[in-house]
Every structure is written in C-alpha cells, then in structure tokens.
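General statements about sequence and structure are easier to judge against a single worked case. For one protein, we set the task of working out the structure tokens from the amino acid sequence alone. This step matters because it turns folding into a mapping between discrete strings. The amino acid sequence and the backbone structure tokens for this protein are reproduced below.
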Amino acid sequence: MLIDTHAHLNFSDFKDDYPEVIKRAQEKNVVMINVGSQLSTSERAVNIAEQFEKTYAAVGLHPIQLEDFEVKEEGVSFRSRAEVFHRETYELLAAKKKVVAIGECGLDYYHISQERDIFDVKEKQKETLQQQINLANKFDLPLILHCRGSKDNPKDAYLDLLDEIKKNLPKKRGVLHCFGSDYEIAKQFLELGFYLGFTGVITFDKTGQSQNVISQMPPERILSETDCPYLTPEPYRGKRNEPVNVEYVIRKIAEIRQLPYEKAVNLTASNAKALFNLAI
C-alpha cells in the first residue's frame, strides 16, 4: 500500500476527471488524503472522501488565502481571494468521519505583496494558525502545516512557525508538508514530535538539501506526498501530477535511505497510518 498524504484532487485542475484519477490510483493501491486550502476546497475534500474508499480529507485555511492576490510560478497559476477563518463552519467539517487532519495551515512569507503592511499580514497568518491549532486540539487531530519563507530569508517563516507551535503545542502534532529547509531547521521540528513530508521535489533537487535531511532524520517520521497537481516528480515533470506518482517519491526515499523499495513503501505507509490514525 502506497500513501499520498497530501493531494489536491479537490482543486479545479481535477474538476472534470477526479473519479478517473482516483481509479488509476486505486488500481496501484494508492491511498490518499485530499487537503483543503480554504472553505470550498475543504468541503470538496470531504465530499470526495465520502464518495470513495481509501480516500480521506483534511480541512483548513491556507495562509495565502487570507489576502487578495495572484500567484504565478512554474507549474502554478491561480488567483487568491481573501477569506476569514470561521471556526464554527470548520468545526462542522472537522467532525466528519473521514477527516483525519486540520490543514493545510501555517505561514507563507514568500507571496506577501510589498504593497501590503508586511507586519499586519504576518500577524494575521499567525492568528489564523493559532485558531486552527485550537481546532485540531478540540478534535484530537494532527496538523498539516505549510511553511514557506520570504525570498530574501528562506528560514524566517520556519523560525516563526517554531515559535507559534511552542506557544500552543498541538496535542497530536502533525507534519511539515513539502519540507523545504535544512537539517538544522528539520531537527527542531523533529524534536517537537513532528513528521516531515516530501514531494516530487526530491527527485530533481540539485542542492542536496532534501537528501541531507532524509538521510539523517529518524525513518519513522518520513511521509510521502505528491502535492498534486503540483511538483510532479521525475520522470513526468511538466505534466499534471497525480497521486499515483507518489511511487516515484517513495523510490527516491528508498534510494536516499539505501532501502529496498518495498521496505520504503511499508515505512512511509506505517508512518502515515500512525500520524493520521488511518484504519486501513
């Protein structure tokens, strides 16, 4: 069993064919968690989970959804509409049977517009994160955390996230999704009991940073994910990503850890089951 702990079949990229994408994944014995980034995609994640076996949901509000702006990067293009975190509405979603986490939530300083008051934007992100930590604690659920530093200081958001977590430690901890910092930062999250999630980025990372983290960290804290439709791994870069491609992430983890592929499959699956309490 392969587990994609972070997918977005609830996004518009899959609106016309998500049942077919799920079928392809199920034929390869891939279990997935579809992760919300705002209310609409959180609701969609729950609806998809209720329709399909071995498909789960996370609900939450992404930090970049707190502002109005347009995102245009390699393989990513969308317009963000400002949204406010309504706890009561998210509580209704969090209570659903197949919701296994709160998120994705966290801090993102990369996309803050220079036209905005940067301090105000960061404070709003931190306040919304704390609301979601409280929600996770109320429902005994782990967090799926997004973190991305500013262009001129890639570690700033990670350091602020550590501070916010220490103020209000999530009972069930969680995962740093698409972890993108160095081992110095990784170690601090690991010491707090968090897992680290890795995407297709590790198949084409030329910096050696992800390999360094994966090779040193405790194996029982490694999670596999796709972040589809984004971050497509080699050998399919340039195409829309899908949960079935989590295989290539796990193969790279196996290579880095010098494990047989099947052992890496079992390792990442066991870790995902433990964190998200998956009864599969």
